Predict the structure of Myo-inositol 2-dehydrogenase.
Amino acid sequence: MGQIHGSNAANHPGLRLKYVVDPRQQAHAGLCSRHSAQAVELETALADPSVRGVLVCSSTDQHLTHALAAVDAGKTVFCEKPIDLDLDKVLAAQSRFRSASFQLGFNRRFDPHFLALKHKLEAGVIGPLESLHLINHDPEAPPAGFIPTSGGLFKDFTIHDLDLARWLLGEEPAQLYTSASCLVDPEIGRLGDVDTARTVIKTGSGRLCVISNTRRSGYGYDQRIEAFGPRGMLAAGNSQLNTVQSMTENGITSAPIQPGFADRYRDGYRAQIDHFAEVVHGRATPSVGYADGVAALILAEACAESVRRGSVVKL
Amino acid sequence: MGQIHGSNAANHPGLRLKYVVDPRQQAHAGLCSRHSAQAVELETALADPSVRGVLVCSSTDQHLTHALAAVDAGKTVFCEKPIDLDLDKVLAAQSRFRSASFQLGFNRRFDPHFLALKHKLEAGVIGPLESLHLINHDPEAPPAGFIPTSGGLFKDFTIHDLDLARWLLGEEPAQLYTSASCLVDPEIGRLGDVDTARTVIKTGSGRLCVISNTRRSGYGYDQRIEAFGPRGMLAAGNSQLNTVQSMTENGITSAPIQPGFADRYRDGYRAQIDHFAEVVHGRATPSVGYADGVAALILAEACAESVRRGSVVKL
Amino acid sequence: MGQIHGSNAANHPGLRLKYVVDPRQQAHAGLCSRHSAQAVELETALADPSVRGVLVCSSTDQHLTHALAAVDAGKTVFCEKPIDLDLDKVLAAQSRFRSASFQLGFNRRFDPHFLALKHKLEAGVIGPLESLHLINHDPEAPPAGFIPTSGGLFKDFTIHDLDLARWLLGEEPAQLYTSASCLVDPEIGRLGDVDTARTVIKTGSGRLCVISNTRRSGYGYDQRIEAFGPRGMLAAGNSQLNTVQSMTENGITSAPIQPGFADRYRDGYRAQIDHFAEVVHGRATPSVGYADGVAALILAEACAESVRRGSVVKL
Amino acid sequence: MGQIHGSNAANHPGLRLKYVVDPRQQAHAGLCSRHSAQAVELETALADPSVRGVLVCSSTDQHLTHALAAVDAGKTVFCEKPIDLDLDKVLAAQSRFRSASFQLGFNRRFDPHFLALKHKLEAGVIGPLESLHLINHDPEAPPAGFIPTSGGLFKDFTIHDLDLARWLLGEEPAQLYTSASCLVDPEIGRLGDVDTARTVIKTGSGRLCVISNTRRSGYGYDQRIEAFGPRGMLAAGNSQLNTVQSMTENGITSAPIQPGFADRYRDGYRAQIDHFAEVVHGRATPSVGYADGVAALILAEACAESVRRGSVVKL
């Protein structure tokens, strides 16, 4: 993620990538040389008064430490999700961040397709939202080695959908139920995690939201939203790799959908940094902040609890 | 439904519509005259030894009485769903039906689109089924007056999806959870029913199925299936009323989806009667029978119970 | 075609199929028995004063003889296209038909997809029509034995598009040019015909229309219209055999398009007979008549002449 | 175009944008500052031995002068199309360019959608190509003031399609016919040009190609290819601005197609410069060169001649 955000910042007309801080020297050499950035220790970067913003893209267990250091140094912070896997730690640190100086990396809110759907929803095309389907299927399961430090399916993966649900429902979940299985890789199950899940959320006013997750789709990175209201349905679909169709006596064949997050959310990652540039320059407050990270984390824990207990969790 | 099934039978080369039994004389006059059928009392029709099959399309509370009378008279029976709203009555009568002489009206199993999906599933196109989404949204809520005798959303409407789920999953549900609301018409809520629901089913082996229901879509009769396996996804979508697209600077507009069941399942209703003709002539045993009706009814009751108790129901 | 039109007439609530006249006894036996019609000689049928309409579906070289006999007997005539392959004969007979009693079988004008496009065009969705693309590709070449009596590609096949062009352009062609080849079956070329052609029509006001024809598409019966105006484009596309999509890592596959005319134009054939019923009962005058057959035949001859001379033909 | 190509070159890892030569100082200031390039006179740039390649993006009447100057200075040249509007000048200069050092800016050959179609064609998905439709509709007519120096519709606009036709047909056109009108803007007609045209090309072996052009579509930048062979059809379609669909009782609405060349061909412009980088570094010979420019220009003149004479032009 450091590569993606670093490049987007470097290419942004209102930002300059001055430093790259990374213990793995090799990894960021290209980033530095391509954008004339300097590889330094964190202290050096934070001590430089010309540095106004920091992109925290370290490993999840370092997010909070690095974000705190940056904020304490007076910088505006962009932090990758999740803030941390430990809700207690996240809550304990919350008061140290001002909302104006912390942007959380829930990139899907910046995806132009999802934004177009949200604008139509807000424009009343289907009337007030009644129910929502979020489909988030990863193309391939991560290596089993990733599972133990991942936070599990819900904190690592579903958390995006939980944030999208909050963003689109316009109302906090009142209860949720998650049914989950290990169908993709038995090793994931042995490590105590699940790889296939369906979550049903209900808000206080009775709105319903289904989240569909799998760690391995077999057909690409399936990222869809369906929103239902009294006057109709809004759907954001997948893009295909190209527009070519072959028509033969066997049917019509077209290109696969986009295979992974880097391509699928390329524009969203860029728009996210565009927003951060506005935040750094004091022209906007973060549209997605620390409190959103807390809320999504609480929901992710509720999903895990629902699976563990086999029952509905009230929020 | 009597009009639809009666016409399909009359137009079938291997069947002849001899009698129409209907207390509402006006309603079936056209059916009789169009197909040279005779309006008679039930006793007359059942006493005629040339009558080999009976289509039971009476009101739901009469299905079982009429089906039993027909079976006792030695006829082969096609019976509209549900068999009855009362599970005890349905179970009590079960032994009186031989599987060879009772076909239940779960028409969606005969829909060519859903059948094509099932064939691809069985052909292994996506590997073994892992999860399933069934979308069944009615275009408009029924009049509130229909609710009290309808059996409620689950026995009246979701029952189709519960049968589809059993048919496609190839395995019985082990537990289910339903989250439901009354968002469409408050009168439905006052009558003790719900109009918007999401059901999550889990089978013994961990397969997951989500059923999405609403009584009023605002955009037509949304009837879709999405099936997921290790190698991909199969989807059966909606048909639109025509193939015309308008492209302007405002975007691309095409025709609405089919508005209701009569058009959407026209081919399926016909194929269902084609199958009944084979059954009547002893060339096939019913592919969907009494036991399927029992199983779906049990699941429909479980949905209602889940909503009532707000918890997961083990099956 | 006799089977299709005969069945549609028999199933029409306002018509009854009384007689079938066919020298090939075997061919129409089913039609007679299914609809309780009688096989008789032409004279018998025409002498029956209760017969008000006649469907002429004989071989092309008999169309005119039969249509004249029927009209002379005071019947209203539906006649398959083309009226005849010989323009002189067609012109010579023209005065013997009153426009109220002759409907020509240009079925595409009754196709609901094409009609929906025409309605949108007339509603001004794209502004006044400027140009038009008609795609008419047959799935497979006819047997070479059919070619000598077919009238050639233009009178047999393109004639439908020439009629559609006139119907949609709302203005007569002023000149046309056809470029054609024999790419499908060399035997067709040896018989003096072509199997692949592109025709460009220009009207007096400068509207342009391209007609694309091939005798063998390899992918089904491709029947499309694209209409262009100052504010956009209207397109009528192909229907696929079902709505199922398979998504795998290799891409998205869906069903073939409809393979032939009987399925593709099923609704249009029915609507054509619906219109004939109105004509027979004096409630409508034929929307497509003898003069349209003359005009299309003149254009078909112009296409052939353009190919023969290798140049533009003024009309 | 200088902005697009200059930025793509500057962002290419194997190229560096050293100089910008532009009499209109304002226009290129941003390009220089963003990419640390220097604004100089042409002589300075060409005299610098470290400059290996030159992108000629001047006005059409300067292309040839600048390309010659660059080639004479030993540089490798990328030149925007057309080489010049005057075929005689183009032919006279041809011998001064070696094929290894001249790449012509027919960007559509580098579009990933069109390339994917070509690869499927070459892979034999539909068998040997028989016919081709090229749709190239500009969203809005250029200002009338542009017409006199544009070379007219065929040299300015259709020339892209003529190159695509040559590229895809794999065979030179043997004859062509163009039918054209002025339907968009009467001022274009008064200036002696046309704005709506259909061209039919025939190759020696009888392959047919239709090119559809209009200066104003009203619905965006319509850029499509349809290729037909014995076993089916390949089609490259338009992309829409986003994937959102609204479904209501009025139908299904989705986003407009891409509105203009900069977005539609963004990837193709980049790939074109990728190729130029390979050419500059001697790792590739230009896949599209001077001879292709000559051939397309001859065809464009033939289109104009066909319109002028109202007849077929042999090539």
